[in-house]
Design brief:
- The protein has about 375 residues and is an all-alpha fold.
- It has helices at about 15, 30-40, 50-55, 55-65, 70-80, 85-90, 90-105, 110-115, 120-125, 125-135, 145-165, 170-180, 180-185, 190-205, 210-215, 220-225, 230-245, 255-260, 275-285, 290-295, 360-364; strands spanning about 325, 355.
- It has a two-stranded antiparallel sheet with strand order 1-2.
- The longest helix is centred in the middle third of the chain and has 20 residues, at about 145-165.
- It starts with 12 loop residues before the first helix and ends with a helix.
Length: about 375
């Protein structure tokens, strides 16, 4: 029977089927990895030899360091060791025995992987090393080999479906990662027509057209046929699955530089506020009194002047002669001292002279 497929033919059912086991994990991120490992074997993306290369006997037995029963079960069926003896083996000795059996051909990678329960692989091995095993070779990049390209599409479609089922991502995550523009450019007219028809049917029922409706009409297995795998990988799988659930090392995260340096977000002007306030307080202080205002404390007694009004000089009148009379300090009088300990100037000083005009003299 001819098993050749045309480029547009759908993948075979056995490749699309989920792995033939039921995970017991309650956590979605662990369940996802368990199914992804098993599917990588089923679809042909990975082999037991690849698994043992990433997880040699020493890595497996180190993971089972505190699980003597699981270690002994593998040793008994791969090395022929008696169970009572296998149970007494420390993990280092168990690793050595398993490695010798593998090197001598007493067992093989397929047997070891088959004896290592899918859930136990995730439970006792490092998640980041499992992700490295799953993604080795950058299989999502364009390949001229049709078989490898079909395997890559199948595996990525399964990852997207599994991530949705395990609630690692939402339908909106997928649509936002792919973008509506990319869908409009990549999907053929027939697929776009189906989307429009679904939207119109929802409108007739009075419901909105959501991302879940879009992916129900154009599921992951349709997306991988038209959207480049590298686009799906870089915009959905890595940021929304691998990084979000810590399948990749923290050092490879590129989404937290600003969050790691909160000081960078603080505006510099905030640091100058205290100085600015001090400056404002300084300018609000009352100015010191002028020297002229301090004089009353040490000023001489008020000058005596005539109470009679002074006649205003007529315009163009010749200037009148002014005579000056100096008052002398009375004999025997003691000079007064102010609070600052300074002796006031004598009465005969010129600063205390009183000017007397001719009009004042006539008035007298």
């Amino acid at each position: 029977m001819n098993t050749a497929q045309s480029p547009d033919a759908p993948a075979q059912p056995q490749e699309n089927a989920a792995p033939l086991f039921q995970s017991t994990f309650k956590e979605g991120d662990q369940r996802f990895l368990a199914y992804a490992i098993e599917h990588s074997f089923v679809c042909g993306r990975r082999t037991p030899q690849d698994f043992i290369r990433h997880f040699p006997p020493r890595a497996i037995m180190k993971g089972l360091e505190h699980q003597a029963g699981l270690r002994s079960a593998i040793l008994v069926l791969t090395t022929g060791l008696k169970q009572k003896i296998a149970l007494k083996k420390e993990w280092e000795d168990a690793a050595t025995d398993l490695q010798i059996a593998l090197d001598e051909g007493e067992t093989d990678a397929e047997s070891i992987v088959a004896l290592f329960d899918p859930d136990d692989r995730v439970r006792y091995l490092d998640a980041q090393r499992i992700w490295a095993f799953l993604t080795e070779g950058e299989f999502w990049k364009a390949s001229t080999n049709k078989v490898q390209a079909d395997i890559a599409r199948n595996h990525i479609a399964f990852m997207l479906e599994r991530a949705l089922a395990d609630k690692l991502i939402s339908h909106r995550d997928v649509v936002e990662g792919v973008t509506v523009e990319e869908l409009a450019n990549r999907l053929p007219k027939a697929e776009l027509g189906r989307l429009i028809q679904c939207a119109l049917q929802n409108a007739d029922r009075g419901t909105t057209f959501t991302e879940a409706d879009l992916l129900a009409t154009t599921p992951a297995r349709t997306l991988v046929q038209y959207v480049p795998l590298s686009h799906l990988w870089d915009n959905v799988v890595v940021p929304k699955i691998a990084r979000r659930h810590s399948y990749v090392a923290e050092a490879s995260h590129s989404s937290k530089p600003e969050a790691s340096r909160p000081e960078a977000s603080k505006p510099e002007p905030m640091k100058a506020e205290p100085a600015r306030q001090e400056a404002a307080d300084f300018h609000e202080l009352p100015k010191p009194p002028a020297p002229a205002q301090e004089a009353p404390m040490a000023a001489a007694p008020p000058k005596e002047t005539s109470l009679k009004p002074v006649a205003k000089p007529l315009k163009d009148a010749p200037p009148k002669e002014v005579s000056k009379v100096k008052l002398k300090t009375p004999e025997g009088a003691f000079p007064m001292r102010n609070d600052f300990g300074k002796t006031p100037l004598p009465f005969g000083d010129e600063s205390d002279d009183i000017e007397v005009t001719e009009d004042d003299m006539k008035a007298m």
